Amino acid sequence: MNPLELAGARPGPAFTVTFDGRPVEALPGQTVAAVLWSAGVTSWRSTRGEGRPRGVFCGIGVCFDCLVTVNGRPNQRACVVPVRPGDEIGTQEGTGHGESSTGSEEARHAD
Questions:
Q1: Higher-confidence position of 64 and 34
Q2: For the residues 81-99, what does the mean pLDDT come to?
Q3: CB 35 within 8 A of CB 29
Q4: Residues 32, 78: contact at Cβ < 8 Å?
């Protein structure tokens, strides 16, 4: 049985975010990681040294494997950041400073 039916839960209407420039459907309350998983994306970061792919590891915000760039801000933990309509999500390369193609240069360096 569908867990939503058991709980009687009804999510709000879907909205669109983008991942590396392509539209992806999201539901209210989902994290960035949940949206990406639902879209079939399991890796959205590469490591600094060897460029190895990474995605969710712990799923509770303790580790840093799921780092992603959201609206030009690098180093966001995909497993705990909720999506909002219109969010621009991008694959993060290394440290995320200067290597991302999502967001403006000013936004990437504003902390």
A1: 34
A2: 86
A3: no
A4: yes
What is the token pair recorded at 39?
């879209």
For the entire predicted model, the pTM comes to 0.75
75 neighbors 58 (Cβ within 8 angstroms): no
- Average pLDDT over every residue of 66-88: 96
Residue with tokens 């240069």: 105
| Cβ within 8 Å of residue 88, ≥6 positions away | 17, 18, 70, 71, 72, 102, 103
Rounded CA gap, 85 and 2, in Å?
Answer: 26
pLDDT tier at 67, thresholds 50, 70, 90:
very high
**Cα 98 to Cα 111: distance, rounded to the nearest angstrom:** 13
> What are the DSSP calls for 21-73, one per residue?
TEEEEE-TT-BHHHHHHHTT----EE-TTT--EE--SSSSSSSSTTEEEETTE
Number of residues that this document lists for the chain = 111
Kindly tell me if the per-residue pLDDT of 9 is higher than 70: no
